[in-house]
Amino acid sequence: MKLELAENYLLDDQIEVSFDELAEWSGLSKAELRALVESGVLLPNNPQQRPWTFRGNYVVTVRSVCRLRDDFELDANMLPLAYVMVARIRDLEAQLRELQATMPGVFRQG
């Protein structure tokens, strides 16, 4: 599967991606991804089963973490914090979209 297809396809949490696919598509090294799993911020579908698989929507978040690492020259110790912050922002954006859908006209977009 090519990355172009992956970008349109893997936003769904019903899709599984392998550890190797996540590393390839995210831009993070396997060591960096492993550290995110070991720190508890990146959760495999079944942590006891190897090789690990992950929900497809992790691809977008870890790609954002990779961009933050590159843009701000973050070291490996900062990646878990960056991941948590990006994931929280995505959750809050989803909640806001839900509120906007249920209460149109109350929230301004912009």
Provide an overview of this structure.
The protein has 110 residues and is mostly helical. The chain has helices at residues 3-9, 19-26, 30-38, 58-72, 79-102; strands at 16-18, 53-55. Strands 1-2 form a two-stranded antiparallel sheet. The longest helix is centred in the last third of the chain and has 24 residues, at 79-102.
Low-confidence stretches at least 5 residues in length (pLDDT < 50)?
Answer: 1-6
Strand/helix succession: HEHHEHH
The N- to C-terminal Cα distance equals: 35 Å
Tell me the fraction of residues in β-strands, as a range: 5-15%
Query: Rg, please?
Result: 15 Å
| Lateral arrangement of strands in the main beta sheet | 1-2
Topology, pairings included?
Layout: H1 3-9, E1 16-18, H2 19-26, H3 30-38, E2 53-55, H4 58-72, H5 79-102
Antiparallel strand pairs: 1-2
Helix pairs in contact: 4-5
